[in-house]
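To whoever picks this up:

The parser on our side crashed when reading a file containing two proteins. I've narrowed it down to the boundary between the first structure block and the second sequence. Both blocks are reproduced below exactly, byte for byte. First block:
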Amino acid sequence: MPSHPPGPVSSAQTSRPPATRLERLRSSRVPRVLLVLVALGFLAHGLAGNWPGTTAAVSRLSWWSLGVCFVSVLVGLGFMLLAWREILKGLGSPLPLGVASRVMFVGQLGKYVPGGIWAFAAMIELARDHGAPPRRTFSATALGLVTSLGCALALAAATLSGQILREGWYLLALIPLIVVGLHPRVMTWGLNLALRIARKEPLDQTLSGAVMARAAGWTVIGWLVYGVHLWVLVGGMRPGGLSLYAVAAGAYALAWTTGILTVVVPAGIGVREGAMVIALAPVLDAPRALVVAVVSRVAFTLADVTWAALGVISHRLTRAPSDVPAGQAPVG
């Protein structure tokens, strides 16, 4: 009996299987918009709650010092973006600068929501839209945070007084652990262990020492620029010139480290200010140091929002047809 040629394959046979509920949720903009709105709500609540103290603090400083403070924070955050993007590229997921800024800074708004995991989760989902598997985004973000922590502690150790360092010896003890942990072999083993616990695939690419060196270089520059913002604020409270820079840079590094390790408080609110007042004790009395700490917090908050807005605008202006559609990015 003659065989009949196979008929045409229907579109139902060649189409993708129906999207699962989780995939539909991931591809929807609603959860992301809600997260951003919630983050902005917590952010606005924090600013409003401290508004009288903030306005009183700002009134004690000149407009030029406030302007330099804000610009230096913006620039410092830009260098941190370059460091994170370098690590993600080294892991196999290069992102255009505009896309990387949107992923990092829109995602980072999640740090203002209590819980400590929202920034990570938001960055993972935003990067997924552009083909970066979750394991790479998680690893790049974790490595960027640890690298920044090590650079901040090293800066504090190099600039602050012996008395302050003796009180914070337990923080400085982390430096050798971080240095060892950032060795490519140790780092890869630790990340793969964390991914295995989270039931995710292991990394498919190992970071080279050159990549980590470049990322650490961008991070160090970022921290040195951060020091400028506190230096101009301290200089607005008392004369001292360039000699105040080392204390200011170290004070912010120590305060940020203390805040970031206090994970139960959103973005280290309150903890960072208290640590900064203590670190600035050799050059400022407590009331003036508190003014500096409050203005520093507001400058970083506004810079976070500014970078997030710039990231969204840049992404919309440079969006290419080859961008991976939401819901079709690799999952891993």
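<<boundary where parser fails>>
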Amino acid sequence: MLLDDGRISASLLALILLLATLASDGLVPNSSLTIPLVVAALVSAGVARWGVPRLRALKLGQVIRSEGPQGHQSKAGTPTMGGLLVVPVGVLVGGLTSPGDPRLLAVAAVTLAFLAIGAIDDWRSLTKRTNTGLSPRGKLLLQAGAALLFLLWAGLGGWMGGGDPAVISLPFGWLLPLGLLIWPLGLFVFMAESNATNLTDGLDGLAGGCGAVVFTGMALQLMLRGHGGDPSLAAFCAAMAGCWLGFLSQNRYPARVFMGDTGSLAMGAALTAVALLSDSLWPLLLMGGVFLAESISVILQVWVYKATKDDTGKGRRLFRMAPLHHHFELGGTPEQGVVLGLWGASLGLVVLGLVLRP
């Protein structure tokens, strides 16, 4: 029954995250995560319900890549660019939780910048009626430009790494001194994380659900880090988790809308920005393990194929299809089963990240 009705699994996920924020607010001083989570979820659900017919009327139907699983061809024409409907809600609700914190303006700005890059990419795909929008080089240059502006802003404000940008905190009190290397690392994480979340957006509800889980995990660890936590960035994360929960009301199986690059790039940018400003790169690495696995699966698939090419130009494949979720799908696991499994993996990784928090 669970695999037959996406409402059940999405509702259960929302309940788990709600209970987690309620527990934090009840047990951790200065924690105020439930209100932004719930407000953003309700507003996003309403906006998404209102906006999906408008996207359909604008004929913003997804073009499905021909080399993907054949079962996905029936999804052609489903409205995309759903990130336009919910990301601004998360940013606005998150920003209003602590309007006096200048860091939130920087996080909001880079999130919306990546949303705009994704929107341009999606729009070009739709107008060309192909699954390719911006050229890879053009897309990366725009992402790098937005990331560099954020890093400059954060550097001038003295916000990087929670005030100590030269060191990354690890579990058990360990510290990783990086010095000036934190700046190229920050740029790399922006590029890697935003493209990893983009690659994860391939099944109904997958990226939205995983994003809601990881944002909630980031919020929880920010409040558990001691010294009063970081209520501003934690509440922002809770609001972003809420916006993706609201999005699942229309994106759960069978999806009535896709987030597109518009949403997935913004998701990765927001996670990276929060991690860099709060010395949370290690928690993000652990909690975002599903995103990391999806990205690595693509890299390994391409590397193995090229390394094993024969005289005919064909090589071996490490996975049935990359990203990783397609490997499981082509192995016979129903789409909803893959999604639930990866949601569960994200929840497990969040628990691990909380246990091994710096």
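After patching the parser it read the second block fine. Residues 142 and 165 are 24 Å apart (CA to CA). The first helix runs from residue 6 to 27.
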